[in-house]
Design a protein that fits this description.
The protein is an alpha+beta fold and about 325 residues long. About 45% of the residues lie in helices and about 20% in strands. The strands form 3 sheets. Strands 5, 6, 7, 10 and 11 form a 5-stranded antiparallel beta sheet that branches.
Length: about 325
Protein backbone atom coordinates (compact mmCIF):
# COMPACT_ATOMS: atom_id res chain seq x y z
CA UNK A 1 0.00 0.00 0.00
CA UNK A 2 1.11 3.57 -0.57
CA UNK A 3 2.24 5.44 2.52
CA UNK A 4 0.83 8.93 3.00
CA UNK A 5 2.91 11.63 4.70
CA UNK A 6 1.12 11.12 8.04
CA UNK A 7 1.65 7.35 7.79
CA UNK A 8 5.36 7.80 7.12
CA UNK A 9 5.65 10.12 10.12
CA UNK A 10 3.78 7.63 12.32
CA UNK A 11 5.98 4.77 11.15
CA UNK A 12 9.10 6.81 11.73
CA UNK A 13 8.00 7.83 15.21
CA UNK A 14 7.33 4.21 16.13
CA UNK A 15 10.68 3.06 14.79
CA UNK A 16 12.66 5.81 16.45
CA UNK A 17 10.87 5.35 19.76
CA UNK A 18 11.89 1.71 19.73
CA UNK A 19 15.53 2.34 18.84
CA UNK A 20 16.36 5.46 20.81
CA UNK A 21 16.20 6.42 24.43
CA UNK A 22 13.70 8.93 25.75
CA UNK A 23 14.99 12.47 25.01
CA UNK A 24 14.67 13.47 28.66
CA UNK A 25 16.72 10.46 29.67
CA UNK A 26 19.42 11.35 27.13
CA UNK A 27 19.65 14.85 28.58
CA UNK A 28 19.89 13.33 32.04
CA UNK A 29 22.76 11.07 31.01
CA UNK A 30 24.63 13.93 29.35
CA UNK A 31 24.32 16.01 32.50
CA UNK A 32 25.57 13.22 34.74
CA UNK A 33 28.57 12.59 32.48
CA UNK A 34 29.40 16.28 32.57
CA UNK A 35 29.30 16.24 36.36
CA UNK A 36 31.92 13.44 36.45
CA UNK A 37 34.39 15.19 34.16
CA UNK A 38 37.62 16.41 35.71
CA UNK A 39 37.98 20.19 36.04
CA UNK A 40 39.81 21.69 33.11
CA UNK A 41 42.29 24.55 33.18
CA UNK A 42 40.63 27.59 31.63
CA UNK A 43 42.55 29.01 28.70
CA UNK A 44 42.86 32.69 27.98
CA UNK A 45 40.71 33.97 25.13
CA UNK A 46 42.22 36.19 22.51
CA UNK A 47 40.52 39.55 21.94
CA UNK A 48 39.55 38.42 18.42
CA UNK A 49 37.81 35.29 19.72
CA UNK A 50 36.03 37.29 22.40
CA UNK A 51 34.67 39.65 19.75
CA UNK A 52 33.54 36.72 17.61
CA UNK A 53 31.70 35.19 20.56
CA UNK A 54 30.05 38.51 21.38
CA UNK A 55 28.87 38.91 17.78
CA UNK A 56 27.50 35.36 17.79
CA UNK A 57 25.63 36.05 21.03
CA UNK A 58 24.18 39.26 19.61
CA UNK A 59 23.05 37.34 16.52
CA UNK A 60 21.19 34.76 18.59
CA UNK A 61 19.65 37.46 20.77
CA UNK A 62 18.47 39.31 17.67
CA UNK A 63 16.85 36.14 16.38
CA UNK A 64 14.93 35.79 19.63
CA UNK A 65 13.87 39.44 19.64
CA UNK A 66 12.51 39.15 16.10
CA UNK A 67 10.71 35.86 16.66
CA UNK A 68 8.51 34.91 13.71
CA UNK A 69 5.37 32.89 14.44
CA UNK A 70 3.27 31.35 11.66
CA UNK A 71 -0.34 32.61 11.34
CA UNK A 72 -1.61 29.12 12.15
CA UNK A 73 0.36 29.00 15.38
CA UNK A 74 -0.89 32.45 16.40
CA UNK A 75 -4.43 31.15 15.83
CA UNK A 76 -3.72 28.17 18.10
CA UNK A 77 -2.98 30.51 21.02
CA UNK A 78 -6.38 32.15 20.55
CA UNK A 79 -8.08 28.77 20.13
CA UNK A 80 -6.52 27.37 23.32
CA UNK A 81 -7.91 30.25 25.37
CA UNK A 82 -11.33 29.93 23.73
CA UNK A 83 -11.43 26.17 24.38
CA UNK A 84 -10.67 26.64 28.06
CA UNK A 85 -13.10 29.53 28.44
CA UNK A 86 -16.09 27.72 26.93
CA UNK A 87 -15.48 24.07 27.80
CA UNK A 88 -12.89 24.12 30.60
CA UNK A 89 -10.35 22.16 28.55
CA UNK A 90 -6.96 23.34 29.84
CA UNK A 91 -3.53 22.80 28.34
CA UNK A 92 -2.74 19.76 30.57
CA UNK A 93 -6.04 18.19 29.46
CA UNK A 94 -4.95 18.45 25.84
CA UNK A 95 -2.61 15.52 26.50
CA UNK A 96 -5.52 13.28 25.41
CA UNK A 97 -6.11 15.13 22.15
CA UNK A 98 -4.49 15.46 18.76
CA UNK A 99 -4.50 19.01 17.39
CA UNK A 100 -4.63 20.13 13.76
CA UNK A 101 -4.85 23.52 12.09
CA UNK A 102 -6.25 24.28 8.66
CA UNK A 103 -6.21 27.63 6.88
CA UNK A 104 -9.55 28.41 5.23
CA UNK A 105 -10.27 30.25 1.97
CA UNK A 106 -11.68 33.24 3.85
CA UNK A 107 -8.41 33.73 5.72
CA UNK A 108 -9.58 32.18 8.97
CA UNK A 109 -7.87 29.24 10.65
CA UNK A 110 -9.80 26.21 11.86
CA UNK A 111 -8.21 24.49 14.86
CA UNK A 112 -9.48 21.04 15.82
CA UNK A 113 -8.80 18.97 18.93
CA UNK A 114 -9.80 15.32 18.59
CA UNK A 115 -9.50 12.55 21.18
CA UNK A 116 -6.58 10.21 20.54
CA UNK A 117 -7.10 6.77 19.07
CA UNK A 118 -9.72 4.76 20.98
CA UNK A 119 -10.69 7.91 22.91
CA UNK A 120 -11.90 9.63 19.73
CA UNK A 121 -15.58 8.92 20.35
CA UNK A 122 -15.90 9.58 24.08
CA UNK A 123 -13.81 12.78 24.01
CA UNK A 124 -15.14 13.87 20.64
CA UNK A 125 -13.81 16.72 18.55
CA UNK A 126 -13.61 20.40 19.48
CA UNK A 127 -13.48 22.90 16.63
CA UNK A 128 -12.42 26.52 16.99
CA UNK A 129 -12.51 28.95 14.08
CA UNK A 130 -10.18 31.94 14.46
CA UNK A 131 -10.50 35.03 12.29
CA UNK A 132 -8.59 38.30 12.65
CA UNK A 133 -7.16 37.17 15.98
CA UNK A 134 -10.55 36.28 17.52
CA UNK A 135 -12.38 33.00 18.07
CA UNK A 136 -15.59 33.41 16.07
CA UNK A 137 -16.87 29.85 16.59
CA UNK A 138 -16.22 27.24 19.30
CA UNK A 139 -18.07 23.91 19.09
CA UNK A 140 -17.90 20.32 20.33
CA UNK A 141 -19.12 17.22 18.53
CA UNK A 142 -20.98 16.24 21.74
CA UNK A 143 -22.73 19.60 22.17
CA UNK A 144 -26.21 19.03 23.60
CA UNK A 145 -25.37 15.59 25.03
CA UNK A 146 -25.30 14.86 28.75
CA UNK A 147 -21.94 14.38 30.47
CA UNK A 148 -23.52 13.41 33.78
CA UNK A 149 -22.68 10.04 35.30
CA UNK A 150 -18.90 10.16 35.31
CA UNK A 151 -17.30 7.44 33.17
CA UNK A 152 -20.71 5.89 32.54
CA UNK A 153 -21.66 8.81 30.27
CA UNK A 154 -21.19 8.41 26.53
CA UNK A 155 -19.72 11.91 26.22
CA UNK A 156 -16.73 12.83 28.41
CA UNK A 157 -16.15 16.50 29.11
CA UNK A 158 -14.21 18.59 31.60
CA UNK A 159 -15.08 16.59 34.74
CA UNK A 160 -14.21 13.24 33.22
CA UNK A 161 -10.91 14.51 31.84
CA UNK A 162 -9.97 15.93 35.23
CA UNK A 163 -10.59 12.49 36.72
CA UNK A 164 -8.58 10.85 33.93
CA UNK A 165 -5.62 13.08 34.80
CA UNK A 166 -5.98 12.26 38.50
CA UNK A 167 -6.04 8.52 37.85
CA UNK A 168 -3.11 8.76 35.44
CA UNK A 169 -1.05 10.58 38.04
CA UNK A 170 -2.00 7.95 40.63
CA UNK A 171 -1.45 4.80 38.56
CA UNK A 172 0.72 5.86 35.64
CA UNK A 173 -1.62 4.13 33.17
CA UNK A 174 -5.05 4.48 31.54
CA UNK A 175 -6.23 1.10 32.82
CA UNK A 176 -8.60 2.68 35.35
CA UNK A 177 -10.88 3.95 32.58
CA UNK A 178 -9.96 1.86 29.52
CA UNK A 179 -12.83 -0.60 30.06
CA UNK A 180 -15.36 2.24 30.20
CA UNK A 181 -14.06 3.53 26.87
CA UNK A 182 -14.33 0.09 25.26
CA UNK A 183 -17.93 -0.31 26.47
CA UNK A 184 -18.95 3.15 25.20
CA UNK A 185 -17.30 2.54 21.84
CA UNK A 186 -19.15 -0.77 21.51
CA UNK A 187 -22.51 0.82 22.42
CA UNK A 188 -22.05 3.49 19.78
CA UNK A 189 -20.56 1.36 17.02
CA UNK A 190 -17.18 3.08 17.11
CA UNK A 191 -14.34 0.81 15.99
CA UNK A 192 -10.68 1.62 16.54
CA UNK A 193 -8.60 -0.94 14.66
CA UNK A 194 -5.15 0.38 13.73
CA UNK A 195 -3.24 -1.70 11.20
CA UNK A 196 0.39 -2.40 12.12
CA UNK A 197 3.12 -1.38 9.70
CA UNK A 198 5.28 -4.06 8.12
CA UNK A 199 9.04 -4.08 8.64
CA UNK A 200 9.45 -3.15 4.97
CA UNK A 201 7.22 -0.10 5.36
CA UNK A 202 9.07 1.02 8.45
CA UNK A 203 12.45 0.59 6.77
CA UNK A 204 11.22 2.57 3.76
CA UNK A 205 10.02 5.36 6.07
CA UNK A 206 13.34 5.51 7.90
CA UNK A 207 15.32 5.58 4.65
CA UNK A 208 13.10 8.34 3.30
CA UNK A 209 13.62 10.29 6.52
CA UNK A 210 17.40 9.97 6.20
CA UNK A 211 17.33 11.26 2.62
CA UNK A 212 15.08 14.18 3.45
CA UNK A 213 17.07 15.05 6.57
CA UNK A 214 20.28 15.45 4.55
CA UNK A 215 18.41 17.49 1.95
CA UNK A 216 16.95 19.85 4.55
CA UNK A 217 20.28 20.38 6.31
CA UNK A 218 21.65 21.61 3.00
CA UNK A 219 18.93 24.28 2.90
CA UNK A 220 19.41 25.53 6.48
CA UNK A 221 20.14 29.25 6.85
CA UNK A 222 20.60 28.97 10.62
CA UNK A 223 22.79 26.88 12.91
CA UNK A 224 21.37 24.30 15.29
CA UNK A 225 22.28 26.61 18.16
CA UNK A 226 20.36 29.50 16.64
CA UNK A 227 17.31 27.35 16.01
CA UNK A 228 17.43 25.94 19.54
CA UNK A 229 17.37 29.53 20.79
CA UNK A 230 14.39 30.30 18.54
CA UNK A 231 12.65 27.19 19.91
CA UNK A 232 13.20 28.29 23.49
CA UNK A 233 11.96 31.83 22.84
CA UNK A 234 8.89 30.48 21.04
CA UNK A 235 7.92 28.39 24.06
CA UNK A 236 8.44 31.36 26.38
CA UNK A 237 6.31 33.72 24.29
CA UNK A 238 3.53 31.43 23.08
CA UNK A 239 2.95 29.81 26.48
CA UNK A 240 3.62 32.99 28.45
CA UNK A 241 6.25 31.54 30.77
CA UNK A 242 7.58 33.51 33.69
CA UNK A 243 11.23 34.47 33.91
CA UNK A 244 11.76 31.70 36.46
CA UNK A 245 10.08 29.09 34.25
CA UNK A 246 12.10 30.26 31.25
CA UNK A 247 15.30 29.74 33.21
CA UNK A 248 14.39 26.10 33.84
CA UNK A 249 13.80 25.16 30.19
CA UNK A 250 15.91 22.24 29.03
CA UNK A 251 16.44 21.84 25.25
CA UNK A 252 17.19 18.56 23.50
CA UNK A 253 18.89 17.57 20.25
CA UNK A 254 16.93 18.31 17.08
CA UNK A 255 16.04 16.53 13.85
CA UNK A 256 15.59 17.72 10.28
CA UNK A 257 12.30 16.75 8.65
CA UNK A 258 9.53 18.11 6.45
CA UNK A 259 6.44 19.49 8.13
CA UNK A 260 3.51 20.08 5.77
CA UNK A 261 5.99 20.24 2.92
CA UNK A 262 8.21 22.81 4.65
CA UNK A 263 11.85 22.05 5.53
CA UNK A 264 12.02 22.17 9.31
CA UNK A 265 14.25 21.66 12.29
CA UNK A 266 12.22 19.98 15.02
CA UNK A 267 13.26 19.74 18.63
CA UNK A 268 11.91 19.31 22.15
CA UNK A 269 12.09 21.65 25.14
CA UNK A 270 11.34 20.35 28.64
CA UNK A 271 10.12 22.18 31.73
CA UNK A 272 10.40 20.57 35.19
CA UNK A 273 9.71 22.93 38.09
CA UNK A 274 9.60 20.52 41.03
CA UNK A 275 12.20 17.82 40.39
CA UNK A 276 13.31 15.10 42.78
CA UNK A 277 16.12 16.32 45.06
CA UNK A 278 18.63 13.82 43.65
CA UNK A 279 17.39 13.87 40.05
CA UNK A 280 16.74 17.29 38.45
CA UNK A 281 15.48 15.66 35.25
CA UNK A 282 12.49 13.86 36.82
CA UNK A 283 9.60 15.68 38.46
CA UNK A 284 8.29 14.83 41.89
CA UNK A 285 4.96 16.59 41.38
CA UNK A 286 3.38 18.32 38.40
CA UNK A 287 3.43 22.11 38.31
CA UNK A 288 1.39 24.13 35.81
CA UNK A 289 3.09 24.28 32.38
CA UNK A 290 5.46 21.39 33.18
CA UNK A 291 5.90 19.01 30.29
CA UNK A 292 7.37 18.69 26.81
CA UNK A 293 7.14 21.30 24.07
CA UNK A 294 7.60 20.19 20.46
CA UNK A 295 8.77 22.92 18.08
CA UNK A 296 9.05 22.97 14.27
CA UNK A 297 11.22 25.76 12.80
CA UNK A 298 11.49 26.53 9.09
CA UNK A 299 15.22 26.22 8.33
CA UNK A 300 15.04 28.72 5.46
CA UNK A 301 13.00 31.51 7.07
CA UNK A 302 13.34 30.94 10.82
CA UNK A 303 9.53 30.96 11.17
CA UNK A 304 8.11 28.80 13.97
CA UNK A 305 5.67 26.72 11.95
CA UNK A 306 4.29 24.55 14.74
CA UNK A 307 4.46 24.22 18.51
CA UNK A 308 2.78 21.44 20.49
CA UNK A 309 2.64 21.03 24.25
CA UNK A 310 2.20 17.76 26.14
CA UNK A 311 1.92 17.82 29.92
CA UNK A 312 2.87 14.14 30.06
CA UNK A 313 0.01 13.53 32.49
CA UNK A 314 -1.89 11.40 30.02
CA UNK A 315 0.39 8.41 30.20
CA UNK A 316 3.05 8.56 32.88
CA UNK A 317 1.72 10.86 35.56
Amino acid sequence: MKLEEKDIQAALNRRLSALTEDPLRRAKIRQRIAQKEEPKVMKKFSMGLAVMLAVALMSVTALAANLLISPKLNAVTVANHALEEKYGITLPMQTYFGRQEQEQKDGSVQVTYEGYENMAYVLGKYTVTVRDGKAVSVTWSHDGESTEGGFEADAWGEKQIQEMLRLNAETGTTMAFDDYIKAINARNGFVYDPQPFTEEEIEAAVQQFDRESAEIQGKAKFTDHEMNQIAKEAVIQVYELTEKQAGLLLPDDGLYQYYEGKPCYTTHVFLIQNPFPDDPYSRETFVEKDGTYFIYINVETGVVEELHYDSGLGGNG
